[in-house]
Protein 1
Amino acid sequence: MKMVMLGSGTSTGVPRIGNDWGQCDPEEPRNRRSRVSIMVESAEGTRLLVDTSTDLRAQLLANEIDRIDAVFWTHDHADHCHGIDDLRALRFGRSHAIPGFASNTCALRLRQRFGYVFAGQFGYPTIVELKTLDIARMHGGIAFRGVEMPHGPTQTTGYRFECDGKSIVYATDFSEITDAMLRLFDGVDLLVTDCLRRDPHPTHAHLEMALELGRKTGAGQVVLSHLDKSMDYATLTEETPDNVLVGFDGMELAA
């Protein structure tokens, strides 16, 4: 499998509106960050999109992605789902709706806010056939499992994808490391983790928590994501261990 990082930034992106780069060097292209999302792709070509970020259209164009086989949502916060309408273009030419997966709570909220996506409207076809995680464990030859993670007062879903003896974990928007997370993520080959900033945050992992998750799971390789304007690519790269990489838009890694 491989992981394509479509977006690596926090909810406001980098730079923030107003051309605010914070501590990030504007001359370093890897500091320009759109809202977080990844794609997991198997050697056989199955493509799983995780989250429909606010910047989804630009991300798909930049990475020349014109087809996906399923979409997963971590939670319903705007930066993770408000690009959902861009799935319409990926529905064109398909005989059936795109399979979608989310937790029970996330699925309920998505249906409430984007009903036309899941039920069609005014003669337009259904875009996504949404299933909850308690009734699905495999798609297109890729096995997947989810775990609920604390995200301040709410929850988000962390995913583990497995295929051909390799594993990828996507754990974004968490504020605490739980035993359930450690059990599911144990021994993962490639861990993509939330890492908002260096200082602790009430709803997100900070740098030390992200590194701790990598150590406790025994991850072969760790990629930091959901980075804000304080996290300069070159500076952060100098601070991290050899098996920890700073994520950037367009990054591709094999598990």
Protein 2
Amino acid sequence: MRFGLIWSEVGNGLRRNLSMVVSVVLVTFISLTFVGTAVLLQLQIGQMKTYWYDRAQVAVYLCTPTDNCASGPASDQTVEAVKKQLESPELSPYIQKFYFQDQKQGYEQFKEQFKGNQIADFVTPDMIPQTFWVNLKDPNQSAVLTETLSGSAGVQSVVDQRSYLDQIFSILNAASYTAIGVAALMLVAAVLLIATTIRLSAFSRRREIGIMRLVGASNRFIQTPFIIEGVIAALVGSILASVVIGLGVQFFVRGYLSERIQSINFVGMEQAWLVIPILVVIGVVLAAASANFAIKRYLKV
């Protein structure tokens, strides 16, 4: 009986303040969409760094049969010669560590990194160069390695990976932090709007609240319908944000971007399913806390 009465009060409150409830839904939806976007951007940055940024500072690519190198494809002697140069007294003081990756290892890594990407179907093992991945003690001294090895026989190119990856990650981080900032402001607006909605709802039902107090209803019994109202509005906004995030990843990221930018392995639904519960929890917890605070303050007045 008490349970049915609570839900009856919740329904009355939602109907009486429908416009405010819709506002709460929209603000929660927009703010949590920004939160989800920011989280996915960070996951994307982390995924890219795992494969590119954290592996090497400088890549020494050896010639393959498909390259137009004057010395021809790199041989075992070429690999040994480059290794000796890296271990030489001239270069070893600048190098923290390095490792060699043959064509088979490179091809397997490429297939794993770009699994599900169409570009993986057009790449063969002979197209993947043998590579020395070098970590420098000081990334700013990569020019020493580049100048020393660029003219060596069998070396196709020496590429400083960080020179352009830093710019890409800086842009992505800036976009992610911007989304987080906007999301934080929108979440504050959502919390304030929920609190205002609950107080207006309580004010419009002040006679009912007075009657419930006279018949001995506890504060918890009076507060519960208002808290549920806030939670329902925020839950609807959270679900809408989750749907938009899921559709965006499925159709825009995987269906549009991944087909046009095949050199990047974008986040997929696996990451989206990790983000969606976070959005729902954030929406519900913030709504419950805000509504609980607002109605407690009102009952103390």
Protein 3
Amino acid sequence: MAEAYIVGAVRTPVGKKKGGLSAVHPTDLAAHTLQALVERTGVDPSAVDDVIMGCVMQFGPQSMDIARNAWLSAGLPENVAGVTIDRQCGSSQQAIHFAAQGVLSGTQDLVVAAGVESMSIVPMGSTITAALEKGMPLPFGDRWVERYGTQEISQFRGAELMCEKWDLSRDELERFAYESHQRAAKAVANGYFKEQIAPVNGVEDDEGPRPDTTLEKMAGLKTLREGGRITAATSSQISDGSGAVLIASERAVREHGLVPRARIVTLTLTGDDPVYMLTAPIPATKKALAKAGLGIDDIDVVEINEAFAPVPLAWLKEIGADPARTNPNGGAIALGHPLGGTGAILMTKLLHELERTGGRYGLQTMCEGGGQANVTIIERL
């Protein structure tokens, strides 16, 4: 049976909105990560079969196939192609899946899976805003309306619906967010992320964690929706960042003298209610564990994207995972969520944490627009 191995994973620091990475062109940001991946793995870049890059707002400086443009901007060989994909927030986790599937199919041997988003330069919703300015219709046409009506479809409403369904209080959300900041601040202070980060423009550490935040400060914030429970403090941060992972076949490992660091165990994708939008990691995780023949107690480290606090909290309640093993170094509430870059960034964090702690199995999942979720389970080697 064919295997797909992770032989390298690197990321930029995650920059906060208008922070240290905000002036870096997104193509250059992604190029920096690709260059670091090639240098750290020692792979012959001309042998790479494809570069698959996630990016959500493929608009303006992130348009025109940023995967190809970033590879060339990194000074890497022209013979290597690149493609940019959009599975919303899970775009670069899906890039990892496509890369692994190419290797598992036997049609490819070396594939780069990456992701990038500069939310400072290309704000979330840029494509919708541009369409509205030109009088173009929104993504939901007549047949969507026939099925789901004219109700609001948004991540913000989905987060509030989750709070209601799982009876999550504002206090519970804020305690989770506070813990995310404390874990992230500890990880930064202890240097847990140093080996996985390729510094950019003098920025060496993630800019998002707020070690001095308090529950009292959080309680004083206005909710994002009148009468709601979600605030900016219990939401992921608007961020800039990039990550890249190199996936290799057994033949590539042997022929190029590469060192496998983890094995892809299983890859799953699941859809759920698009109105709730953010709930799919729950059924996706159940599906992935069953496919892998594992229980949640077999998983040593979990990275679940903290798009909003109710996402991991509801997941924890339904899956029964150990909170101490879930986002042990904080999540997107503290560290930020650069949309298309987050999947590759989370995989980089997951791999390095397994290596730091000696854990065996790691699981990554994230909610995605349209009510979707990827799950990737890896085994450290």
